[in-house]
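Pasting as-is:
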Amino acid sequence: MYETETLKTEKKTKIPENLLVVERYKRSQRIHHWIHVILMVFFLFTGFELFIKMYFVGDYHTTRTLHLIFSAFIGFWDLIIFPAIVIKFKKYGEIIPTPRDFLDMFIIFLCAIRILPDSKYPHYDYYNVDEKKYVMKYHPAQKVLSLTNLFAILAMGVTGVVLSEQINPGYVPSIIVDIFNLILLPLDWFAIDIRLVHFFVFLYFLMTTMVHFYFAIIPQNRERLRGMVTGKEKIPLKEK
């Protein structure tokens, strides 16, 4: 007979198979993720066009308009829809980092630079067979990024609107521009260029997207990637 490799309760659940198919992502989570991916690809692409001043679709004004539209959708999707999904399904523990997550990230770093052996790599993916649900699901770095992404989206939106209105005013209501200028006032105190901040946030999204894509396609994570498409994941079981 077999039992899960992950979390056990006092009463062991006997499973006559070496694989267990479980629900990893709900439909709403999968829809949110893939719409976010599509929006982010076009958002970064149009932003890059504006940065290098080469326009593959239309001219400057068309690209700028598309960039603002994608940024507005991303802001709505990630700052309103995403928190709503988290609240609806009560997934706070899955995305809010804990002190243990930061400790695990430090241990993972030590494993990565070979100070600690791979056997010390912390387990972060636990499925409770008896309760038929995940107790822990996400890598500690994913939990940290889920929050830093929200702040990065805010920073990108605020700096982007201010920059856009400086170059070609009139697209955004003046009261919003005034509020955003007030938020960015500390940058003036330290003589920090808004364009530089906007560019670094762009680099942040570009790098984290590339890293996320890499880890999504490596063999160890194929089941998780499949789960983001079908909602299901196969969990290996070990013999007692």
